[in-house]
What does this fold into?
Amino acid sequence: MQLKGSRVLLTGGVGFIGSHVADALAAAGVRELVIADDLSLGREANFAGARRVLPALVFHRLDLSDDAASAAALEGQDFDFCFHLAVIPLPASLVEPKKVVDRNVRMTTTVCELARAGRIRRLVHFSSSEVYGTARAVPMTEEHPLEAETPYAASKVGADSAVLSYHRTFGIDAVVLRPFNNFGPRQNDKSYAGIIPIVITRAMANQSITIFGDGAQTRDFVFVEDTARAALGLAERDGVAGKVFNVGSGRETSVNDLVRLILGVMQRTDLPVEHGPERPGDVRRHCAGIERAARELDFAPRVGLRDGMERTVAWYLGTR
It folds into this structure.
């Protein structure tokens, strides 16, 4: 299985992580790249770099949970690889839980059905560390219990289970990539934004920073380019079908320390930091166990938190 010269379907390729996967695929020399995305979180400018390398790149504005629309857009097309990142994000599930669960599972079974019909040779499905819930022990390996604490996390458990069941029942070549908290350029700073773009944009606007809860909750932050690199490595690796792979830094950082780092990089430590109520379903502790990825994929993160944060801040400053 080689990406060079291949035909690839990338769902969610306009979003934050997906657009970096698009860049990596273009650099890897894929022959054709088809992106499907409903533009709910990203914008077409996010894959401008990939399009410069691949002028024939095809974009479908598409809700993959719509069976009829998906069938029409992808009719007659077969793919060597599918990288499945299309997703409705966690904050949306606190407002419209049923819609998020339904759509996330339906979008995943859409690509599973393409694989079952022989139209996708290998499916790389993007999961989320949220499926684990709060860490019972760290580091959190792939054997950690799945204890979803939000409807979003439950939808990802369901989607992961669907992919693995299609592998076991129908023999599709599928693998699950489970990234921890990604950060980097292009992360959405509008609706349903994450903490890093929120802090950066508020600091740029000279506004105070609010941390939900006491800020002692931890996350494992991994630079988005490292995740994209792991995904491409997984696509080309033999013997991984039916397996789950964590991708993270292997280090935990508290939200308090994260905010201090961002404000330090921006030289805005003068801004007041306040604490608000805890978010519903907020996990308390996360730290990735990445031994399997290190052993089977030769994966190790290349970009540290501070270096990655400096690059991230520079990108946001440069787009304003």
